[in-house]
Design brief:
186 residues, mainly alpha, 2 domains, 73% helix, globular
Length: 186
């Protein structure tokens, strides 16, 4: 919960990946709040009792959402899907504007990887979700100590750069607002 709050301010892509990980943690504990409290949250020794109780409430709310949305086995919560949709909408706005040439340049560097990933995976995902899925999948491989090819490492580095740029623009758009109209001064 506290990590999610910090990531939300710092990096939207990292926030989404963290929330996907939280969904998987909840599933790993069978969507049972008592198990999460006793076997997971109890390990956070640096947190006060009050902070741990806040975490229990937060996890409880997420479990309730997962149950009501039918996400106990797989899928992502609507609150997380909305953030990904918002990121994708901003991504498309950035690409349509001539005001963001560095973003456009990075996008075209990443596009071949996106095309390849979409051909091998879920073609119904938007480009940003495809990129996030690639990062999450790689993160899972690393946690399992699996070998990641140099080609995949290169693709992930480029995708990370694009998502990092998008995250920065996302936060700037939410806090200050971005101007997309090419006739306006920035």
């Amino acid at each position: 919960m506290f990590i999610a709050q910090e990531l939300r301010k710092k990096s939207t892509a990292e926030f989404v990946l963290y929330m996907w990980q939280v969904e998987d943690i909840i599933r790993a504990y069978g969507c049972q709040l008592s198990r999460i409290k006793n076997e997971y949250i109890s390990r956070f020794a640096n947190y006060t009792d009050e902070q741990r109780e806040e975490m229990v409430d937060w996890y409880g709310d997420l479990i309730t959402m997962m149950n009501s949305e039918g996400k106990r086995e797989k899928g992502h919560l609507t609150i997380n899907q909305i953030v990904v949709q918002d990121m994708n909408e901003l991504h498309n706005q950035l690409l349509q504007s001539s005001r963001f040439p560095f973003y456009n340049s990075e996008y075209y560097r990443v596009l071949p990887f996106i095309v390849e990933l979409r051909n091998r995976g879920d073609k119904d995902c938007n480009e940003i979700e495809t990129c996030l899925n690639a990062l999450y999948g790689t993160m899972m491989l690393r946690l399992q100590n699996k070998t990641i090819s140099p080609e995949t490492q290169h693709a992930i580095k480029e995708i990370s750069t694009l998502l990092g740029m998008l995250s920065d623009y996302y936060i700037k758009d939410k806090t200050e607002g971005l101007k997309f109209d090419d006739d306006e001064e920035m």
